[in-house]
Amino acid sequence: MSKSYPILYTFRRCPYAMRARMALFHSGIKVEVREVVLKDKPEEMLQASPKGTVPVLIIPDATVIDESLDIMYWALNQSDPSNLLCRENHDFVSEISTLIDENDSAFKQHLDLYKYHDRHPENPQSHYRSLGEQFLQKLEERLKLSKFLINESPSLADLAIFPFIRQFAHVDKEWFYNSEYTELIHWLDFFLEGIEFKEVMTKFSQWCPDTTTVFFPKS
Predict the structure, then answer these.
(1) What is d(CA 177, CA 197) in angstroms, rounded to the nearest whole number?
(2) Domain containing residue 76
(3) pTM score, whole prediction
(4) Cβ distance 143 to 149 under 8 Å?
């Protein structure tokens, strides 16, 4: 009998899907990857998760996990060779949770306003950027104290947050890379230049039921 692999519906550039793939990469768990075009979502994905957002992970016992952070925790609870969850330190665990919560709530809202400022003409783009900078400043101060957000090694917080900082930086790369956030720039570039990010950003063709099965990670 052939081995069953988890199935991951994903979209390459979505920061939520990106961070889920990062955790899967670090856990070493191989999944069948199904690249989704958001304007043409497959019925199989919608049947598994009617809310229609990526990522969606279906594990072999038919359990559906359709929140990116839950996928990250699921993967790392299976295998966490790099100790990204920092389980042995309760303070670190709490700090990870607090940072991710702020990223996923206030910062994500400010990021969307900054990125899609033309939909919110009541304020200039610089206003929305300044709102997002409150979080950038917090991360910058942390990175002045340690190489990564929690300590001297990457943690779940780094993997969960960096795709959103990447998106913020790409709204106006010239501004970001000339900003005062020098530690944050070094931190972001560390991940963008890493082998794992290059594999995470592998471009897959749109999935449909008759396409050849492809796996992630490839190695």
Answers:
(1) 20
(2) 7-83+199-216
(3) 0.96
(4) yes
